[in-house]
Amino acid sequence: MDDAQLMVSIQQGNPMAFKTLVERYKKKAYYTALRLVGDPDDAYDISQEAFIRVYNARRRYDGAKPFYAWFYTILSNLSRNHLRKRSVRLNHAVRTMRLRRQNPEYYNSPEYFLELDETKKAVWTAIGKLSFEHREVIMLRHFEDLSYEEIAILLGIAVGSVMSRLYYARKKLRDLLGEEYER
Amino acid sequence: MSDEKIRQLMMKIVDGVASPEEEKAMAEAIKENEKWRSELQAFIKIKEVTEKMQFKDLPDSYWTGYWSDIYRRTERTFAWILMSIGSIVILGFFAYMALSRFYSDPDISLLLKVGVSMALLGVIIMVISILRERLFARKRERYEKEVER
Question: What is the ipTM of this complex?
Answer without folding.
Answer: 0.73
